[in-house]
Design goal:
Blueprint (H helix, E strand, L loop, with lengths): L1 H23 L16 H14 L5 H12 L9 H14 L2 H22 L2 E2 L7 H7 L1 E2 L1 H14 L3 E9 L5 E12 L5 E4 L12 E6 L2 E9 L5 E6 L5 E3 L8 H14 L15 H17 L4 H13 L3 H18 L4 H18 L1
Parallel strand pairs: 1-2
Antiparallel strand pairs: 3-4, 3-6, 4-5, 6-7, 7-8, 8-9
Helix pairs in contact: 4-5, 5-7, 8-9, 9-10, 10-11, 11-12
């Protein structure tokens, strides 16, 4: 009898610990995009890389948990961030039909409010680093979209991030913005943008992932802010919502390094000193090269690396990257005006040198 009692205790403890572990770290919901959930391995890895880059101690997950307690923007009755998100995930699993869709929208609105309250300052120069979100309360479009997607995934929702090339007014950029995206259980998409006062926005041009690779698309919005279909830029063909997905983890990792290169001190943008310096351009080239290695299909990273190499006097390498970038943009369905200008100048130069 004693033998049975002694062996039963560890078995009971093991069972209890297993239940506790399951409740504290639930299995991830199947995602149309990468697993970015708060508390998951990808979220932690991206955050660790940022902390290591900046030299900040601690973990971003702990900071975010503390920010939830201090922001006063509660999700349901949960006292802690993980408890609130996991409770909402349970609510969503139990909800059906229109009630579930409304709960998804409410949760997305909460994430928008929470991020804006917890991180009140916006900074293009520093806010892309999760370490700067925690260390100085600064956010930028990539960081805020990554956080929102991670929170919503932990809450049991389909979420991710996409690039923006045309804003709600139709003004175009060279993939100059990032926004969080939600796949509602009703099958429509919804954009959540913490750069806007209201949570749901109507950006007119996005870069999404498809079975054929990344594609520039134009969303069609309904009166309730949802996206019912996409039009492929370049061909005019229709892309069903089910065939569009958020950007891959490799693209997001690449984009973090892209911003590190773009905003390096004295680098491509002249950040911090008002002009490009040799050391700054070297740093820009290092991060942009890494960005291209992480995702060779990131046309923006290839394009800007070409600019940096040109400024470093490496004309042949710059030309090679410009050609690669133009090919990527063309294949993905849209060539930004800056890329067109570069190609026209290269063509003119080639014609002049050949005469």
């Amino acid at each position: 009898m004693k033998f049975r009692v002694i062996t039963a205790v560890p078995l009971i403890l093991t069972a209890l610990l297993s239940v506790q572990a399951a409740s504290s770290s639930p299995a991830p919901s199947a995602q149309v995009g990468p697993d970015l959930r708060y508390g998951g391995p990808a979220f932690a890895d991206v955050a660790r890389t940022s902390y290591r880059t900046v030299g900040l101690q601690g973990t971003f997950e702990d900071w975010l948990a503390g920010a939830y307690k201090g922001a006063g923007v509660k999700l349901g009755a949960g006292d802690t961030l993980t408890a609130a998100l996991d409770a909402r995930a349970a609510e969503l699993r139990a909800a059906k039909g229109d009630a579930r869709v409304q709960l998804e929208r409410d949760t997305a609105s909460w994430a928008h409010r929470f991020v804006k309250k917890a991180v009140p300052k916006f900074s293009l120069e520093r806010g892309y680093e999760l370490a700067n979100v925690a260390g100085s309360g600064q956010r930028q479009c990539l960081a805020q979209s990554f956080i929102i997607a991670g929170l919503l995934q932990r809450a049991g929702m389909q979420a991710g991030a996409v690039m923006v090339w045309a804003n709600p007014q139709g003004q175009q950029s060279n993939l100059g913005h990032v926004v969080a995206t939600v796949r509602l259980s009703s099958g429509q998409d919804l954009l959540v943008d913490a750069s806007d006062p209201t949570p749901f926005v109507h950006h007119q041009g996005l870069l999404v992932r498809t079975a054929q690779g990344y594609r520039f698309v134009k969303p069609t919005y309904a009166a309730d802010d949802t996206i019912g279909r996409y039009t492929l830029s370049g061909t005019g063909g229709t892309l069903a919502v089910k065939d569009a997905a958020p950007l891959s983890l490799t693209y997001l990792q690449s984009q973090f390094d892209y911003y590190r290169g773009e905003r390096a001190r004295g680098g491509f943008m002249g950040t911090g000193v008002g002009r490009a310096t040799p050391d700054g351009l070297k740093q820009s080239a290092l991060y942009l090269t890494r960005a291209v290695q992480e995702d060779p299909q990131n046309a923006l990273a290839v394009y800007v690396l070409g600019h940096v190499l040109e400024r470093q006097g490496l004309a042949a390498q710059a030309r090679s990257d410009y050609l690669k970038a133009n090919a990527l943009y063309t294949a993905q369905g849209h060539v930004p005006s800056g890329m067109q200008t570069v190609m026209a100048a290269m063509k003119k130069q080639a014609g002049g040198s050949g005469s």
